[in-house]
């Protein structure tokens, strides 16, 4: 049941992207709704993670077996102990977090900076159309391309991360815990590849 709940909580993330990219409520209402969901999501997802942290493998998302392997993750809200079913799962998890930590100087601007630029540009352009220096579709395509390149590359390059502790959290860990890191990486690969294909087709 906890895994099913994790999947449901994860679906709020593609919902936010849908609001930001398709603007089904109109540009400004969709951005406002997406921002509210994005910031409010943590107040549900983090407690879910804390309730299940001792019974789910952080890498695979499956229930923990006997004698799981553990590692400590440092975050702004304190240290957390996560568990993995196998030593390989533990090493993969540690590699992932260490890679993200070492690459944060690139990943944070690429992901958070691009998101901020995109939302501000779309909102200002809606309020003052004369200010908009690119078409709406161009803004969308640039946003998708930068995010796709960032998450797609990270989904493969994480293996370059070290297996040493302590491990630091750069992005909200609860988002990775909902499905398990392994499945989140597959989401990155599939969505990232599709967005790059879309960009390529539109550029023809």
Molecular structure report:
The chain is mainly alpha-helical and 204 residues long. The chain has one domain (2-196). It is 66% helix and 8% strand. The protein contains nine helices and three strands; from the N terminus they run ααααββαααβαα. It has helices at 2-10, 12-22, 27-40, 42-52, 87-102, 104-127, 136-157, 173-177, 181-203, and strands spanning 69-75, 78-84, 167-168. The chain has a three-stranded mixed β-sheet with strand order 2-1-3, covered by helices on one side. The longest helix has 24 residues, at 104-127.
Which labels suit this protein?
204 residues; 3-stranded mixed β-sheet; 9 helices; mainly alpha
Ends apart, CA distance between termini? 46 Å
Shape assignment? globular
The overall number of domains is 1
Class by helix and strand content? Answer: mainly alpha
| Rounded radius of gyration (Å) | 18 Å
Strand content: 5-15%
For the residues shown, what is the average pLDDT?
93
**How many distinct beta strands?**
3
Helix content: 55-70%
Number of continuous helical runs: 9
Biggest sheet strand order reads 2-1-3
The parts where pLDDT drops under 50 for at least 5 residues are none
Order of helices and strands: HHHHEEHHHEHH
The major pleated sheet works out as:
3 strands, mixed
